[in-house]
Amino acid sequence: MEEESKDRDNICKLAIEGSSNGIYVFQDGKFKFVNEALSKISGYSREELKKMNFLDLVHPDYREEIKKWTEQALNGDLSGLPEKHEFEVLMKDGDSAWVQLIPSLVEYEERPAIVGDVVDITERRKAEEREDFLHSLLRHDLRNKAQVVQGYLELMRDFDLNEEAERFLDNAVNALTGGIEIIDKVRTVREVGKEKLGKISIDAVLEDIAVNKKPQASKEGIELEVENFDCDALGGKLLAELFSNLIENSIQHAQCDKIEISGRKTKDECIVTIQDDGKGIPDDIKDEIFDRGFKRGKTGGSGLGLYLVKEIADSYEGSVEVKDSELGGARFDVHLKKA
């Protein structure tokens, strides 16, 4: 047994020393142990790290937060503490780096201590910052310019255009409108999973969407009916986007005369049904329509609308399924947790 225990200890030491992640044991305001990887991340030697105040490594913007959760954890109170922490650290050469820390509370020499698992995420953060900048250009600069072009194209309708020119103008406006919609959907994709969730009145969300969508539906000769059912679900602001995309899908692609929105409650769920009397969705593609980029026919749109519906529902720990409608067309059932 003693031999087995020694073997286990040796294996653990080899794993810790060989890890590419920084590993440390923290107690009494000091590092009791640090591995070589943490030394490489920080630029300090292991001996230097053990003599330092650990907060000197933390960027000033994050010191108070890190100090607070460290003291709370060492007092045995883990309530409300995140499993992971991402913050900036100061390296020996004066540069800074971003790290992700996963801490664990353990007993070390019969007293509470923190074992930290540290990963250098600097390159990932730089990539995210570049991506954020590019998306900012896309959402604001490019979208604004596209809307200016759209405005000038609409002004051209005041001129006496021949039939061919009118057709070209319609094609240009439709293409530009589609481009703006793609920009908006890309923004939504980036927001999925980042929302703060809370209690949302489904009736209120559906009523607002109906007010916005009824003129569009009416223009296409479609009757849009909404039935209230008084259910509060767990969700965020993207819930409106979810339902809006489903209704938009029916208006644009179903070739229907009627869209019905209704709901029912179970013990744990609010279930919203959106169905139409249109051409329906063939069984052989029902499993594909929520895939990113899926398009069907000339009116296939961006291929992002139904993908977003599923992604938003999943982020709320809900689900969405497609069936044949009793009206003759397609039916979408959205399952959401009760708040």
Count of distinct strands: 12
Helix content estimate = 40-55%
Please state how the strands of the largest beta sheet are arranged side by side.
Answer: 2-1-5-4-3
Radius of gyration, rounded?
A: 28 Å
The first-level CATH class of the largest domain is given as: Alpha Beta
Structural class: alpha+beta
Sequence of secondary-structure elements: HEEHHHEEEHHEHEEHEEHEE
Strand content: 15-25%
> What count of helical segments does DSSP give?
9
- CATH architecture of the largest domain, by name, is 2-Layer Sandwich
| Measured distance between first and last alpha carbons | 53 Å
- Mean pLDDT across every amino acid position: 87
Q: Can you walk through the features of this model?
A:
With 339 residues, the protein is α+β, with helices and mostly antiparallel strands. It has helices at residues 2-18, 36-42, 46-51, 60-74, 122-155, 163-191, 202-219, 239-253, 305-315; strands at 22-27, 30-34, 85-90, 96-108, 111-120, 198-201, 223-226, 232-235, 258-265, 269-276, 319-324, 330-337. Strands 2-1-5-4-3 form a 5-stranded antiparallel beta sheet. Strands 7-9-10-12-11 form a 5-stranded mixed beta sheet. Strands 6-8 form a two-stranded antiparallel sheet. Strand 11 (319-324) and strand 12 form a beta hairpin. Helix 5 (122-155) packs antiparallel against helix 6. The two termini are 53 Å apart.
